[in-house]
Amino acid sequence: MEVVWAVGQVGAVWMAVVLGLIVLPSALGISLGISEAYMWVLVKTLEWATIRLQKGVKKPQPQMPQTPTANGIIERDETPMEKEIARLHRADFEFSHIFYFCRKGFEAIVEDEVTQRFSSEELLSWNLLTRTNVNFHYISLRLTVVWVIGVIVRYCFLLPLRFTLAAIGITSMIVGTTVVGQLPNGSVKNYLSEVVHLTCSRILVRALSGTIHYHNKENRPQKGGICVANHTSPIDAIILTNDGCYAMVGQVHGGLMGVIQRATVKACPHVWFERSEIKDRHLVTKRLREHVADKNKLPILIFPEGTCINNTSVMMFKKGSFEIGGTIYPVAIKYDPQFGDAFWNSSKYNIVSYLLRIMTSWAIVCNVWYLPPMVRKEDEDAVQFANRVRSAIARQGGLTELPWDGGLKRAKVKDTFKEEQQKNYSKMLVRNGSIGSLSAGTESD
C-alpha cells in the first residue's frame, strides 16, 4: 500500500506541475519563458556539438553542398538538355556524344528528382538525434556522453511529458467539442467551438515542444475562403489551427482518429467523406462549394499535394481545390530539420512510429507565412491557377517547385507522362536540326 500511495503522490505532483506550468498558460495563450529557455539551451548545445564535430574531423571529408535543399548523392549538370543537344550538333557526330545521354540516364536511375522527395532531408550537421547525416563518425568521448545524456532526457523526461500533454489535449478536444456540439446552432456555439479548438491545439503544440513563427498575420484566411498549404506532416493542421480555426476536409477514419472526427464535427462544420464519396469528384466539389458559399463558416483547410513531401519542395497541386471558386489563401510552411524531422514517410513508418519519432525529437520549429489572397483570373483555368498558387508558396518558403504528381509516391508513372517527355525530347531534336540532318544523310545514301 505504501508503494501505491507513493506512486499516487508522485503522479499527483506530476499532473499539478504539468497543469500549472504548461497546460494552463498554453490554454490562456501566454508563455512563462520555459520553452524559450529550453530552446536557448538546445541551440547552444547543438552549436557546441557542431564545433566539436568540425574540430574532431582529422581526415579530409568530401565537401557537402551548402544549399539548404541539397539532399542528393550526385552532382548534376544544370545545363538544360536543349542547349546541350544544340552544342553537340554544331560539330560532326562523334561517338563521345552519346555519353551525355548515358549520364542523364544514369542520373535518373541513381537519383531522380521525384523519389528523393519522399525520404527525409539530409542534414548538413549532426543534431544529436539517432537519425543523422551519412558523414557522421565517432569523434570524441565528450560528444558521445552528451549524446547519451540527450537520449536519457528525450526518452525519460520529454517523452512522458509530451505523452501527458497529448493525452490532455486529445481528451479535452473530444470532451469539449462533444459538449459544445449539444448547443443549438448560433454565434455562442461558434464562439465556444473556436475557443475549444484553439485551446486544445495550443496544448498539442506544447506536446511537440513547438516553436512556431507566424509571418504576415494580416493575410490570415478569412471565413468563406479556402486555405491551401504545402504538406509535410499530419501535424501541419495542428500548426495552423494553433493560430486560427479551420474547417478540415478529409476521409472518415476509424479508431482514435474516427472518435476525434465524430466529436469535432458536432461543434465545427468539418467536411468528412466516406471512402466511396471521395471517389465521386462531383459530389466532393458540390459539398465544398456549399461550404464556401456560406460566408459565416470557417475557411476550409486543404493540402492540394495529396501526400506528405519532405519539406524541400512543393509538388503538383491537384486542380480540384481550385475549381470550387472563392478566394484562395496560400500558406507556406517550412520546418527546421535541425531540431527534428517533421516529415512523415508513410511508406516506411506507421502513424504510431512516426508520432514516437516526433515526441522523442528535440523540438518542432517552423515558420508559417500567410500570403496575400489570390483569385482565379478570367483567362485562367484551374490547372494554371493551381500552378500560380504553388509557385507563390514555393518562392516564399524557399522550396523547390516540381511539376510531378505526389501520387508517384505509391503509384507507377502514367504512360501519358512518359509520352509527354518523349514528345518534348523529339521537339528538341527537330528544333536543333538533328532529325532533319539524319533524314538528309539517309536520302543521300
Descriptive report:
- The longest helix is centred in the middle third of the chain and has 40 residues.
- With about 450 residues, this protein is of the alpha/beta class.
- The radius of gyration is 26 Å and the shape is globular.
- It has 14 helices and nine strands.
- The protein has a seven-stranded mixed beta sheet with strand order 1-8-7-2-5-3-4. It has a two-stranded parallel sheet with strand order 6-9.
- Helix 1 packs across helix 5.
- The C terminus is likely disordered.
- The chain is about 50% helix and about 10% strand.
Give the uncertain stretches in residue-range form: 61-71, 434-445
Give the radius of gyration.
26 Å
First and last CA, distance? 102 Å
Order of helices and strands: HHHHHHEEHEHEHHEEEHEHEHH
How much of the residues is beta strand, in percent? Answer: 5-15%
DSSP, total strands: 9
Query: SS-based structural class?
Result: alpha/beta
User: In this structure, how is the largest beta sheet organized?
Assistant: 7 strands, mixed
Note the total helix count.
14
- What is the subunit organization of this protein? single chain
The overall average pLDDT, rounded, is 78
Q: How much helix is in the residues?
A: 40-55%
Can you list the strand order of the major beta sheet? Answer: 1-8-7-2-5-3-4
Shape: globular
